[in-house]
Write a structure and sequence with these properties.
This protein is α/β, with parallel strands linked by helices. The protein has three domains: 64 residues; 171 residues, no CATH class; 165 residues, SPOUT methyltransferase, trefoil knot domain (Alpha/beta knot, 3-Layer(aba) Sandwich). It has 15 helices and 13 strands. The strands form four sheets. It has a seven-stranded parallel beta sheet, sandwiched between helices. It has a two-stranded antiparallel ribbon with strand order 1-2. Helix 12 links the parallel strand 3 and strand 4. Helix 5 packs across helix 7, helix 10 crosses helix 11 and helix 12 packs parallel to helix 15. The N and C termini lie far apart (106 Å).
């Protein structure tokens, strides 16, 4: 018999003849020649994999405790159950901006998707962009201090304080792409209004959040207004007009969304809310959601995230807002009633609630849940000319995005919001005449 180390084994692999020369492989083939031996090898391999996974699972809690070892205490419950990668980003934001617990909580709960952003590609470039822009603002407004090199630390402290205050109020500013959006727009502002334009916090918000058409219009108006004053003051006066335009839409309206399934519904509701002058879109629970069909409205309308319906109620009540549930139930009032004899249109809203109205939209199929109904003050519905039959013919209710559009337009008419000016066949984002 030929010795093992001298034997030659040949077999076919994908139609090609291959020759095995390595003695170790030969021994494996010989010792696993029968079926039972193959099964034993397979079971041994599976046992090794199981032992490895078990060891890995035992080590994970140790890693988690290591992740949470940094000095951040007394965080709210919603931040206590984060994943390891989210905790690392929480730590990075905390140390990068030197935040206290309240500031960190305000930023993270104000814009939860921030914990899904890549640090090197999104967070660091965005923070650096805002720091650089605000640093120029601080240096330009205090030239005497910047001449003294000993005051560099003081300047950095002022910039950091301004940035923290800005992000606590508008944490969604970290959402925007620096190379594609922020830097090109800032360069356009400086090219149009002058290199020495003072870029303050309000101007940065406009640069980041406005849609392309509204940004173009703001830039044009700022350029036109600069003829009667310095360019920096001209930009700031235009910021004030933007604020006054927002305040002219009173009492304010809000949309509250929770448990919606379709990203296109959320996107279309956001678009309608922007068009009809909503103050804010409030999202309950859902941290990640698609905004299909919003047509850029995500950059125009402020969004506020809360983790529960009770938290949404507390937030709205602090502003004096009346909460209306949109549901076809007993006791609900129609969104409007028109008397043909008198020509009078009646709405279910009341002027005594100075904070405005919030409209809570239900799930596409199930409508409002008991938890949602529990935070509502009143209920309204949209009267239909036709409904669905018992056998399933027709439709018994509107699509949730269509319903939100009808309700917001009705409230817009009742509240007397100003009508936007028209340019050609479209409305433009400027203050118009009142109803």
């Amino acid at each position: 018999m030929t010795p093992l180390h001298q034997s030659r084994y040949k077999f076919k692999w994908n139609g090609r003849r291959m020759e095995i020369k390595d003695s170790a492989i030969k021994r494996i083939l010989v010792t696993t020649s029968n079926k039972s031996q193959h099964i034993k090898c397979f079971m041994l391999m599976m046992a090794f994999i199981y032992a490895f996974l078990l060891l890995l699972s035992l080590l994970m809690p140790l890693n988690n405790s290591a992740f949470t070892s940094f000095p951040i205490n007394n965080l709210p419950d919603q931040l206590d159950h984060l994943k390891p990668d989210q905790i690392l980003k929480l730590h990075w934001i905390h140390s990068r901006l030197s935040l206290d617990n309240d500031q960190l909580t305000a930023i993270v709960t104000g814009h939860p998707p921030i914990l899904s952003y890549d640090i090197e590609k999104r967070l660091e470039p965005a923070i650096t962009f805002y720091e650089d822009a605000l640093r120029v603002c601080v240096e330009d407004t205090d030239n005497d201090n910047t001449k003294d090199d000993g005051n560099c630390n003081a300047t950095d402290d002022v910039v950091r304080d301004k940035l923290i205050l800005l992000l606590c109020k508008s944490p969604q500013l970290l959402e925007y792409n620096v190379k594609k959006r922020l830097t090109p727009r800032l360069e356009r502002v400086r090219a149009t209004l002058g290199q020495h334009i003072i870029i303050d916090e309000e101007t940065l918000k406009i640069i980041a959040t406005k849609t392309d058409s509204r940004f173009d219009e703001w830039l044009y108006n700022s350029s036109s207004s600069s003829s009667s004053s310095s360019r920096g003051n001209g930009a700031r006066r235009n910021d004030i007009s933007e604020h006054q335009d927002d305040e002219s839409r009173q009492p304010h309206s809000y949309i509250v969304l929770s448990n919606l399934q379709s990203g296109s519904n959320i996107g279309n509701i956001l678009r309608s809310a922007s068009i009809f002058g909503c103050k804010e879109l409030i999202v309950v629970g859902q941290k990640r959601y698609r905004l299909t069909g919003d047509h850029g409205s995500r950059f125009d309308l402020k969004r506020h995230h809360v983790y529960s319906h009770e938290e949404a109620k507390i937030y709205l009540k602090s502003k004096g807002v009346r909460i209306y549930g949109v549901e076809i139930i007993e006791g609900a009032q129609p969104i409007l009633q028109y008397d043909q004899e008198t020509g009078i249109t009646k709405f279910p809203f009341k002027r005594q609630y100075k904070g405005g109205a919030a409209f809570l939209m239900g799930n596409e199929g199930e409508g409002l849940s008991q938890k949602q109904m529990g935070i509502c003050d009143e209920f309204i519905f949209i009267p239909q000319t036709r409904g669905g039959s018992v056998d399933g013919g027709g439709s018994s209710s509107l699509n949730v995005a269509c319903a939100a559009t009808v309700i917001l337009q009705a409230y817009c008419l009742w509240a007397g919001y100003p009508i936007a000016q028209r340019h050609g066949e479209k409305f433009v984002a400027s203050k118009g005449a009142n109803h």
